[in-house]
């Protein structure tokens, strides 16, 4: 039985196609399904220090992540016997945080989606999928969008 982790980008326009593809997968070998999403929170003051209540922002972001993961778990309509773990992560580094989560939880397989990058930004940056190919010890299932 496998521990499977799905990395979800709720900010992506491709979330609907990812969910549709997840519904077609055979989950019979899964003992645990970790539905994970990472929200990157960076604060920059640019020379002034406005009164920002970071704790309140994080609490609101965490509530939204949890609600989105709950809705996704219901939408997948998984078989009985699969333990579903929903984990919203707030971090300054999505890649490192999700790789660390996979390692700490001894994830056997990660499911991630990828789409082609365009323009100059695509030339100078690597994708999340490329990062996981280099740094993850888990088996990867990459769904191309």
- The largest sheet has its strands arranged as 3-2-1-4-5
Q: What is the number of helices?
A: 5
Which structural class do the helices and strands define? alpha/beta
The main β sheet shows up as: 5 strands, parallel
| Total count of domains | 1
Total strands: the figure is: 5
Please mark out the parts with pLDDT under 50 across 5 or more consecutive residues, or reply none: none
CATH architecture: 3-Layer(aba) Sandwich
Overall morphology: globular
CA radius of gyration is 16 Å
Tell me what portion of residues adopts beta-strand conformation.
25-35%
Q: What's the multimeric state?
A: single chain
- CATH fold-level name: Rossmann fold
Classify the helix fraction into a percent range: 25-40%
- CATH domain class name: Alpha Beta
* Mean model confidence by pLDDT: 80
**Secondary-structure element string:** EHEHEHEHHE
Structure description:
- A 5-stranded parallel beta sheet has the order 3-2-1-4-5, sandwiched between helices.
- Helices cover 39% and strands 26% of the residues.
- It has 5 helices and 5 strands, in the order βαβαβαβααβ.
- The protein has 145 residues and is of the alpha/beta class.
- It has helices at residues 15-23, 54-76, 94-104, 119-124, 128-135, and strands at 2-7, 30-40, 83-91, 109-114, 139-144.
- The longest helix has 23 residues, at 54-76.
């Amino acid at each position: 039985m496998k521990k499977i982790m799905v990395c979800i980008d709720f900010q992506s326009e491709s979330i609907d196609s990812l969910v549709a593809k997840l519904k077609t997968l055979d989950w019979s070998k899964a003992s645990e399904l970790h539905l994970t999403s990472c929200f990157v929170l960076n604060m920059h003051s640019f020379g002034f220090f406005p009164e920002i209540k970071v704790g309140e922002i994080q609490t609101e972001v965490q509530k939204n992540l949890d609600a989105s993961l709950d809705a996704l778990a219901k939408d997948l309509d998984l078989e009985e016997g699969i333990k579903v773990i929903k984990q919203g992560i707030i971090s300054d580094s999505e890649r490192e945080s999700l790789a660390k989560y996979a390692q700490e939880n001894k994830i056997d397989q990660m499911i991630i989606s990828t789409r082609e990058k365009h323009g100059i930004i695509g030339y100078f940056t690597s994708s999340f999928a490329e990062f996981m190919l280099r740094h993850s010890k888990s088996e990867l299932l990459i769904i191309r969008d």
